[in-house]
Specification:
The complex is a heterotrimer of chains A (363), B (340) and C (503). Chain A has 363 residues and is an all-alpha fold. Helix content of chain A is 76%, strand content 0%. Chain A has a domain of 238 residues. Chain A is globular and about 50 Å long. Chain A starts with a helix and ends with a helix. Chain B has a six-stranded parallel sheet with strand order 2-1-3-4-5-11, with helices on both faces. A six-stranded mixed sheet of chain B has the order 7-6-8-9-10-12, sandwiched between helices. In chain B, strand 8, helix 8 and strand 9 form a beta-alpha-beta unit. With 503 residues, chain C is of the alpha/beta class. Chain C has two domains: 235 residues, Rossmann fold (3-Layer(aba) Sandwich); 161 residues, Rossmann fold. In chain C, strand 7 and strand 8 form a beta hairpin. Chains in contact: A-B, A-C. Chains A and B meet through helix 2, helix 4, helix 11 and helix 13 of A and helix 1, strand 2, helix 3, helix 4 and helix 6 of B.
Amino acid sequence: MKKNPLFDIFIGNDSVFSFVKAILAVFFALIIVYFILLLTGYSPFPVYGALLKGAFGSRRCFGECLVSTTPLLFSGLGFAIAYRCGLFNIGLEGQITVGGIAAAFIGYIFPEMNPVIHVSACIAAGFLAGALWGFIPGYLKARFGIHEVISVIMLNHIAFKIAAYLVSMQGPMKDRLDDMPASPFIRDSAKIVRLVNGSRVHWGIILAVITAFIIWVLLFRTRLGFRIRAVGKNKYAAETAGINVKRHIILTLSISGALGGLAGAVEILGVHYRLFAAFSPGYGFDAIAVALLGMVHPIGIIASAFLFGILRSGSVFMQAMYGVNKDMVSVITAIIVLFMGMSAPIGIMIKDRFKRKSHGTSV
Amino acid sequence: MKKVLKTTGMVFLILFIAANIWAGGEQEVEKVEKKLVMAMVTNQSGLGDQSFNDAAWEGLAQAVEKYGIERKVLEAREQAQYVPNLSTLAEQNAALIVGVGFMIKDAVKETAEMFPNTNFAIVDGGVDLPNVASIHFKENEGAFLVGAIAAKVSKTGKIGYVGGMSTPVTNRMEAGYRAGAITVNPDIEIFISYAGTFADPAKGEEMAVPQYDQGADVIFQVAGQTGLGVINAAKKKGKYAIGIDRDQNYLAPKNVLSSMIKRVDIAVSNACGMVVNGTFEGKHYYYGIKEGAIDFATTGNLIPPDVVNYANMLKKKILSGEINPPSTYEELDAFTPPKL
Amino acid sequence: MAAIIRMENIIKTFPGVLANDKVSLEVEKGEIHCLLGENGAGKSTLMNILYGLTSCDSGEIYIKDQLVEFSGPRDAIASGIGMVHQHFMLIPVFTVMENLILGNEPVKGLKIDKIKSEKILADISGKYGMEMNLHAYVKDISVGMQQRVEILKLLYRGADIMIFDEPTAILTPQEILELYKVMESLRQRGKTIIFITHKLKEVMEISDRVTVLRDGRVINKIKTESTNTRELAKMMVGREVLFSTRRPEKRAGAEVLRVEDLYAKDKRGQKGLKGLCLNVKAGEIVGIAGVDGNGQSELVEVLTGLRRTDSGSIKIEDREMAHRNAGRFLAAGTAHIPDDRLLRGLILDFPLYENMLLGFQDQKPFTKGIFIDFNKVRQWSKGLVEAFDVRVPNVNVQAGSLSGGNQQKAVLAREFARDPKLLIASQPTRGLDVGAIEFVHERIMQARQNGKAVLLVSLDLSEIMNLSDRILVIYEGKIIAEFMADEAADTEIGFMMAGGGKK
């Protein structure tokens, strides 16, 4: 076979190639969206400009971009670790919710104290609540063989309704001094400090990136990670190798849920400062796309969570500058997400073409 | 393979050209004249909700007519988007930014602190900042009137109330409504349900049907989109419903007995005017019958004339302070129907 | 007679592998032509090219003296070529007839003409002696019957050149004989058959001519009647092959495994093992002979901690192991060569070195606290791979990309690396070619020489007879007979396997 330097650089190397694929997917999506924008009466390039400006235009905008990246990164990691164990955790939204409830509760119920202790306690509470919300479906699956997708959907609903009840007019966590259906504000000592002035971005993003590295090490360098991956790829072989499959299913779903809980806790402690019924706008569901686009690899998920963050914060500017309709913005982001999901088939297509070509030259 | 690629390429090229022509080539060039921009951020129902957000948007339209401003809207899809939406508008130097709905309160507070030189207004919420005008409505006054009308019109002595979520505003209306009804008929039976959502018409119908089946012949809905289901149920059952926020008679001309009108538009357009005239102040504004912002609708002439007169009489008594419709459950408990 | 198929100078490369190197093949009309070679010799690649599943890099194909170029199986079918794959392409919940006419239904208006299809199909099956119930569901019929459906499908579509890809691998001896009959009748009616195999016996029994492939090259083309198995084996493997393993004298040592009165359920929750007793001593190979489905897989699973025991005792060196999980069995010194290496033995998506770590994941020297020292794992794997002659470019390749023989060698390497006291080998040579079988047998024998206790479960009686010191016959979940190796005759064992002792 004739050597093709381009092939070696961009396609031969797997990690570079996954990046190339993701870029191409976004590129294709932008082409399709171009036509949609034109046909609905907008000029595409300025709208794209607005999208970028909304994400990178100012310190505040970039901050917003990172603000949405944070919970997406946590929950994307949560989905990924479950997926690596062969589990499909679409219950992250519920796990985020209970994590937020727990963090908010610890955040306001105690008086002002040392902020390090208070924030850590809140985060730990969110972590544990999320872990519990992951443990339940894990246990149900291991003990009774109930499919995790079914049980987490139910647990999602339970979590949503619990949150709604807690802050409803008569709910136990409702702030009696305020007419909003929300909990009291958390203490100042429970707030996660903002990173810079003039932007809402907070230390949670740093925590999220550190968590990504921890999960990376956990999955690919530790005994536990090896066992989790073994169960995910072939539970029979894992069982034969003396790995307790059921225990790892429970443990992994608990970790996955805990990561969701972290997302919720950090969102409450760093952004909202109090609990609302639906404080997470579906980060737990976006997590699926984030994780899959990130090749279910913690480092890839950092990149894809950031990309989703750009879309979320950039879409505000598309509306503000060009009056692109709210639903239209949703359509555009959905198309981009759709194409991101197609990055794998796109990759196969490209590889195929390259192979044919290089074979052609060798004959 | 090559062939396929080539054809696809061609198709795209043709589409590209066609689409450009169809779209009329260049978009219109930026406006030269710089107008004051006044903007609003909707709550999660967004424009087209037939009530709250639309009314605020209409208020801005009136301001466009009266003061020659330019209006703008950002629709928030989720709680987390309130702050970025408000900040984006502030950065674009909007002269007034109106936040709609009580859920946006925290976000307005946070943004107003961040942009102390920008004027904000919030509808249905209170923020104590020098650059935020808080607009409140005395819905209890209007609810009192429609409560009295419902009790008068009811033949069964049973009426109903369907709320969206249990919120301060819906509770306030419930209190006023019940007070109005017992003023007319101390023995009246009132069914109360809350659907738990403002966005689900099917749920509204589900809530209304049992009330009708138990004998209620008028239901007051305070439930946004959910309330459309209540009106639908009235239509199916041939009973009466009372609309909310705007005159909703057009939805079912034979069944929407009346509507409690809440003129968000007046309040919003007033706020715009204050900014233009330089009289804007960050304080609480209360809009009621006196300000012409709360009323009841008579469209469709379904209310008998004597009942209309009766309601107008009550209205006057509220204006004169003779009647104080309760605005909370506590006030309702303490409320004694006036002897008329 | 003129060649009906001529493939000339076919070259096909996969990344890093030259699968076919100037391969030429000539098949005459009306013959059964064997394509013989070890796994990975390039047989399947060549046939996939002929069937249009893959394209070759260079070379020419002539069908009936016409140059053809297939871009897919559709073209091949149109030229009268059909293929019976190893894995059947049938829809289990459809009837035989529905499967047969699928994609090519005789229609009347918009409806399928059932009467007409039935008649056509009955004609075809009658003509070739393949009578079968057209209205049975595919999921309900035996594997042999399913294969017939595949063959009928080709006939229905008018194929006159038929490729059989290792058709006997999944059949019982009885079914193999039936298949031979069908092939014979096909040949008599002028059909041409290409028969892919690596089993020498089959070549000798059925084929007219044979083409031997090794390492992607044609080694020889020969008439079957002018050769013998020994010669063919040498061509295929490239060296002399020993057909029976010589068993050196060895005295059995202390008892390692003792199983008493063992009861366990099978997959469907029925009784699988009903009071089974056996023992295995150090330095001894005990073979379990039996017809498939008499409790062999349950026995293996129970003895490796993968299946719950209902009652009874399992002792490994006097330690009670019943109700323990697989991890405990490994820790107690058991090694397990599972019958299904793809399911239980390997994780195909994992690189080879991670597969080698399976079962060692929590053991020194690979662990460092909670971490795994993957560098050490790689190095160690490299050593194992060399020692067991697993042919891979490096240990980072995915296990799924290896050939069956190499996969089995990898499993063997790992299990022997445990330095077990007890080796449980379940069908260790299933699906392997001659060279690999020989290798596996040698290793098992070596384990015996090193004083391991070996329990060998196999459906291949000759394998059992070749290797075992003692032979136990399993029937309906019980051991019903025991033979010493020297005194056993296969007829007698066969009689017991069929439940003869019971009557």
